[in-house]
Structures are given as C-alpha cells and as structure tokens.
Design brief:
The structure holds 2 protein chains of 2 kinds. Chain A has a single domain, classed as Ammonium transporter fold. In chain A, 56% of the residues lie in helices and 0% in strands. In chain A, 52% of the residues are buried. Chain B is α/β, with parallel strands linked by helices. In chain B, the strands form 4 sheets. In chain B, strands 1-14-13-17-15-16 form a 6-stranded mixed sheet. Chain B is built from 12 helices and 17 strands. The chains are: A mainly alpha, B alpha/beta. The interface between A and B is large, with 42 and 75 residues.
Chain lengths: 337, 443
C-alpha cells in the first residue's frame, strides 16, 4: 500500500466549484434569449450582424494572443460576450465590414492594449461602439423597422456594403423611440417598448427578455444586482421628478426606463465586473452616477441616447470609487481616505 | 457602553460541512502502535528539553521532556516503554526536528502515573496556570499555542468573559462535537479552573447551530446560579476563529493587532477545557487526544482517542486505508496541512486526519486573471480587500500591502482562495507576503 506519491498542496484544500469560464459562459446563456428575439424581429440582417461581431471579437482575441506569443484566451468566453454585446448595440442593418471593425477595435483597443481580461478599464464592447459612432455617425443611426415582411427572405442592401464604403441611406428606416421623442416630440407606448415591438438597435428592443437574462445571472450569483437596480431607480426617480415638474416638457419615467439601450446597458454592460467597483456601496455610487448621466445626456445633451457614454464615464471613475470607498477593516476605526 | 449582540460576524463562507459521517460515532480508544515518535516541538514556542536517555524505561504519564522557559510546555510519555533513541524525527513541515522514539512494552498494564493534584477550590490562579503548563496543555483546536500563556492576564488588564469555543467550523471535523457530548463533566470542571485562573465573571460556551444536540445537552448541566451560558451561533466559516467568535457572542471587535484580552475576553477551545478538567485533579500530563479520521479514503471513519506520537502510517493501516492514497491532511480542509510523509506522527495539535484518494484530489486549476468580481471582498471575515492585496502581492509591493491594506491582520482562514473564480492562490500569496514583511521588519 501507499505506493503512490502523495500530493502536497497548501490550504485551503477545498474550493468553490466555480470559475471565470463558468461565469462568462452563463452570461452568454443569459444573452441568448435577447439575441434570438432580435433575430426574430429583424430577420437575417440581425443574425449576420451578431455573428460578425462575435466572430470578429473571437478572431481578434485569438490573433492578438498569438502575435504576443501568449496562450489563446478565447476559451474563457469573455470575447464572445464582448461580441454579442457589441452586435446588440448596433443597428440591425449595420454594414458587416463596420461591425467587424468594431470588434477589432473593441478587443484590440478596449481590452488587449490594457493587458487583456481583468485589466480593461472600459467595457470593451462599448469602446468598439464608441469608435464606430464617431467614425460612422450616419450608418450607426440608420435604424430599421422590425417585423418587416421580407426579413427572412432577403438581406438589406446596407448590410452588405463593400468595405470602406458608406451605405446608401434607405427610406424604410424607422426612427427609434428616443430619436422620435428628441427630434419630433413623439412618444411611443410603454408596452410596445417593454415587449420590444419598436425599432432600434439589434438588442435594445425587448426589456422583458433582458431583465429575465439578468434575473437568471442574479439568481446564479454571477451578477451584482445592485448595479442595475441603482441605475434604473436613479433614472426613474430623476426623470420622474422632472416629469412631475413639467409633464409637457419631459418624458414619463416609464418611457425613460424602457426606451433605448438603458435596459441592455444597465443589466449587461454596466455590470462588467472588471470595469465596475468592488464594494457593495461602491457599486451603488457607480450605478447612481450612470443613471444620472443617462438622464442628463438624454434630456439636455445633443444626442438622443446617452447610455454608452454614461457607462464609459462611470467605468473611468470606477477605480477612484474603489480608492475612496473601502470596507472598514475589522478591528480598525473608519479610515478617511 | 452599547453592546449590540449581533450573533454573527460580517462576511464569511459556507463550505460543504461533510460532518454527517462521523458526528454520531462515539469516541473510541485507539490501540498502541509498536513505535511512538514524539517531536519535542509540539507547540508554538521553544521546544521542550529531553530528560531521558536511550535505553531508559519510562512509565505512562512520566515526564520525559521539560518546558524550556515560559513559552514552552513539557512532554509526557504516552505509553509505558523503553526509549529507543533521542534524535531527529520527521515532522509535518517536512523538516527533521529533535524528538524521542519510544517503544511500548507489549504486555504492560499501561497504568498512568499521577502527579500532584491541583484542586480548583484551593489552588490560586498562579498555581492553576503552573498546573496547566506542567500538564503540557496546548490549544487542541489546532494552533497548539501554550494554554497557560494565553490564560495569563497581562498587568493592567482584566478578563470579564471566558469564552469556551465549541464552534468547530472546519468541515469534516467532529472531535469537539463528540467531546461536548461525551465529556460534559470534564468540560464543566475545566471551566471552574479557567474561571479561577482568569478571574472572569462570566463564561459563554459558543456552539455552532449544526451541533444543536451538543448545545441542548450541555445546557442541562448548567446549574442555577452558575455564571455559565450556552449560546448557539449560525453556521458560517470561520466562526471558530477567536476574533469572529468574540464578535458573534459579545458584539465587540478585537482591535487590529490586538488580542482578545483587549476587549476583556479570553477564548479557550472546548477540548482543551475538557483536558484541563480531566488532568489537573490528578496532576497528569497529556497522553492522548481525540482525532476525527475521515475522508473518502478511510473505511473505518470515526472519532478516536489516539496516543500522542502514534505514527500516521500505523493509524491509516489500522483504519483500513488500503487503496492508494493521494492526499492526507492533518487538521481540517480549510486550514490543515497536507502531509508529505506518512512516517510523521500525531501531535497535540492534530484535530483531524483527512484522507483522499486519487479521484477525489483537487487538481490544480487553471488560474485566470482577477476579474474584480468582489467574491473575496465579500468573503473576508476581516473586510480586507484580497483582490487588491493579491494584485499587490504579484507586483511584490509587500510594504504597501502591510501599511495601506492591513495585510498583517489576515489570519489565513482561506475564505478568499475558497471563493475565487479565477483560482488565484490568494491566501497562499498572503502567507508568503506576511513572512516577507516580518523578515523585513526584523532586519
């Protein structure tokens, strides 16, 4: 007996049965209902945008790892999340070459330049989208109505635009509820917003499915619920106060909650663990900041939608929140930072 | 002063308990091994000094090594037999250390030699502390800190509360549980000694909620007018850590870098208390202790009363460990030490022996970068920031870890490593960092 070598390890000899890969994989699962619904609403166009975005992110991550002679980190599933999130924030008829470029920039500049997973300051998908928005302001605001009769029979001409070409602006593009409100003063029914029966980005449509995905992650303890709750409550209260002050000037808080990319941003983008604060109180400050910025940009800013910039700004502030807000260490007096 | 009773501490983790297989098994006496190995350093502090020569015959309970100064305890012969050698013996650290090989007489009656009895009624506090040191008693929970040193109240301080630690928050271990169910008289007698030695006014026996039977049982022994209460606290690791238990029971925090006596409390393990109650009235020394032997690799799992110095290999062979063994821990799975050599022996601080076979061993897992998920931050019972500390350790910023992030407060419970989804060896980094900081300070 006892012929085998004894393993030696240092305590603790037990670990929780979880890993980064499991967390990331479950985030992908949580995004799937939203993704499939967007394909149902927008047809093959949306499917192509999503597939291109994911493919671009995965390929970029793999190639960059190879170039820097590191083991490929594609297996941790985080590049797939970035790809899905990027695709879901783009218009469903966004030219594929631009989509691909967005993935390369998101992973390359947003993630790899900072040192890869765990070191990114900003949410990589939003970095990709921010650059696309600056580079292609027309294409990224060319929306497309959902439930078009031909959505499963053919592709929109815009999506197949040749590389380095701008798509021709198409007459069938529907205005998003936010731009309709901002530029034309038209309000959309909240129930249509919640169920996703409006035009908009690929994944901005169904708040219900986004919330279900978030609920799944919260139940599995893969997401900090405080972040979306803080954002949504702030948006509701802030815009609610404005609405009470002057209902003719300001949109209703429910419209603010369910329109645009707020749900997707609050549930899936602001909750990027790497780019959000680490303490329970810190994430609430972070969430309130995002919520306030969203309302400010939407109502007083020049853009119809402000979720992306609100999250990117809060990402930049997040390390400072961690520096200022710490738990009081057991047995010490509260430290002033 | 306000004294909120929180009944638990902040954060903590819930590892699977795995206590069901042994917590209903009564303590059984283990037989004598053909050879006994006794390291002279079975406690924190200075090793004891041998008093015996090779070839000398000793009686069970006889003093064979004396304490070397105050921070040391003596060693008693666990069996009657003959000293084979006084030389280097293998120890759990992997290093050889000075020790004694003892060969038991096969047909001896194994009667125990008794010393000078100490009565709790007539002895002074000083005499009780001396008696505890003479009995070779150390913390039996695993730390093996000399108990008489811990009980000595420094000048200018006083002890209000004596806390008896019956938490046993380590998974798998059931020794304290069985001791509470089977040795209540020893425990309550031990408490009398401890109350007198510390001058404490009250005594609280703290028990985790998964040992409700022990709590109910012990409550039945508290007589009217006794200053003793039994309190049940929630199951949460590391509830049994001194600081955490004080917070749970008294609602106070031990100051950073301080000791329980700074909040007028002293914490003693329940098995140590029982040992004091059993040994002091007879002036005996420790010869044996209760150890939980369990794990998927053991056929005859149970709680055994094993003579100190019994070789690990003998214990495992007797309990039907015949499959190829892959990993053996001494202590619990959260803070215990993996054994590199089965020729070491059971010492006073051994609370459990866990045996795992090939297929149950935890394989080294792929380490990912820290994704700042905050799981460790919400696990650390001291509210440290293990994520930040881990990153600083990687960059070898040890001084910053100690000065800005309270590294030296870490008592290495391992909760951070337990929860980390990136499998970063956090507590392992901190052990290393702490020893480097200590060396730098000493230099």
């Amino acid at each position: 007996m006892f012929k085998k070598t004894l393993y030696i390890s240092t305590s603790p000899h037990l670990t929780k049965n979880t890993s980064v890969e499991v967390i990331m994989r479950n985030v992908v699962y949580a995004l799937l209902p939203t993704s499939f619904f967007s394909v149902y609403v927008f047809g093959w166009n949306a499917a192509l945008v999503l597939i291109t975005a994911v493919g671009s992110c995965v390929i970029t991550e793999h190639v960059l790892c190879r170039i820097s002679k590191k083991e490929s980190t594609v297996g941790d599933w985080s590049a797939i999340i970035t790809g899905l999130l990027l695709g879901l924030t783009l218009p469903p008829i966004f030219p594929l070459w631009m989509t691909f470029l967005g993935g390369v920039i998101g992973i390359g500049m947003g993630k790899f330049l900072f040192g890869g997973l765990g070191y990114n300051v900003f949410n990589p998908a939003l970095v990709g989208r921010a650059v696309l928005q600056a580079a292609f302001p027309v294409a990224i605001t060319t929306w497309y109505s959902g439930f078009m009769a031909d959505r499963f029979s053919g592709l929109h001409s815009s999506i197949l635009t040749l590389p380095f070409m701008e798509p021709a602006v198409d007459g069938s593009s529907g205005a998003t509820p936010l731009s309709a409100f901002k530029f034309d003063g038209v309000l959309t029914e909240t129930s249509d917003l919640a169920l996703g029966l409006v035009s908009g980005s690929t994944g901005e449509t169904s708040a219900v499915l986004i919330l279900l995905g978030g609920l799944y992650l919260v139940i599995r303890n893969f997401m900090n619920w405080r972040i979306p709750v803080a954002i949504l409550v702030t948006v509701f209260v802030f815009s609610g106060l404005l609405y009470l002050a002057d209902p003719s000037e300001y949109p209703s808080p429910l419209f603010m909650l369910f329109s645009g990319g707020l749900m997707l941003g609050a549930v899936f983008m602001a909750t990027d663990m790497v780019a959000s604060p680490i303490t329970s109180f810190g994430v609430i400050v972070y969430g309130v900041l995002i919520g306030a910025l969203v309302v400010v940009i939407r109502i007083w800013g020049g853009l119809p939608e402000g979720v992306m910039y609100a999250i990117l700004l809060a990402n930049a502030v997040s390390p400072h929140i961690d520096r200022l807000i710490r738990y009081r260490v057991y047995g010490t007096k509260a430290k002033s930072a | 002063m306000l004294n909120f009773r929180r009944h638990s501490f902040k954060h903590g983790v819930h590892p699977p308990e795995n206590k069901d297989e042994t917590n209903s098994l009564p303590i059984r006496q283990f037989q004598f091994a053909p050879s006994i190995i006794l390291p002279l350093s079975q406690h924190l502090g200075k090793p004891s000094k041998p008093l015996v020569r090779e070839g000398q015959e000793v009686v069970r309970g006889q003093l064979i090594a004396e304490a070397d100064g105050y921070m040391s305890v003596p060693l008693h012969a666990p069996v009657s037999g003959k000293i084979r050698r006084v030389s280097n013996v293998p120890t759990i650290s992997g290093k050889m250390a000075q020790g004694i090989y003892l060969e038991p007489f096969p047909s001896s009656t194994q009667e125990v030699l008794e010393g000078e009895p100490i009565s709790w009624e007539s002895a002074t506090a000083e005499e009780i502390l001396q008696g505890i040191q003479n009995a070779g008693i150390v913390g039996l929970g695993g730390a093996a800190f000399p108990t008489h040193v811990k009980l000595k109240i420094p000048d200018g301080k006083h002890c209000d509360e004596l806390i008896i630690n019956g938490i046993e928050c380590e998974p798998y271990l059931t020794t304290d549980h069985r001791v509470m169910l089977e040795q209540p008289d020893d425990i309550f007698l031990g408490i009398k000694y401890l109350l007198k030695a510390t001058g404490a006014k009250r005594c609280i026996i703290g028990i985790e909620a998964n040992k409700q039977d022990a709590a109910d049982f012990l409550k039945g022994f508290v007589k009217k007018g006794d200053p003793i209460t039994v309190e049940v606290v929630p199951v949460k690791y590391p509830q049994g850590a001194e600081k955490m238990l004080i917070t749970s029971l008294l609602g106070k925090e031990v100051p950073s870098g301080g000791l329980p006596i700074d909040v007028n409390a002293v914490v003693v393990n329940v098995a140590t208390t029982a040992e004091i109650g059993r040994l002091l009235p007879h002036g005996r020394g420790i010869q044996e202790r209760v150890i939980t032997i369990t794990g998927p690799g053991v056929k005859k799992k149970g709680n055994y009363l094993i003579p100190i110095g019994t070789p690990l290999r003998f214990v495992l062979e007797e309990l039907g460990v015949h499959e190829p063994v892959s990993e053996v821990y001494m202590g619990g799975p959260m803070m215990g030490v993996a054994v590199s050599n089965l020729d070491i022996s059971v010492v006073k601080g051994t609370s459990g022996i866990l045996v795992f076979t090939e297929d149950q061993v935890r394989r080294p897992q792929k380490v990912y970068p820290c994704i700042k998920c905050g799981a460790c931050v919400d696990a650390c019972p001291l509210s440290l920031n293990p994520s930040k500390l881990g990153i600083l350790a990687k960059f070898e910023e040890y001084d910053q870890m100690a000065e800005e992030f309270n590294l030296m407060d870490c008592f290495e419970c391992g909760s951070c490593s337990f929860v980390c989804p990136s499998h970063i060896p956090l507590v392992q980094y901190f052990r290393l960092s702490k020893s480097i900081v200590r060396k730098r300070k000493a230099a």
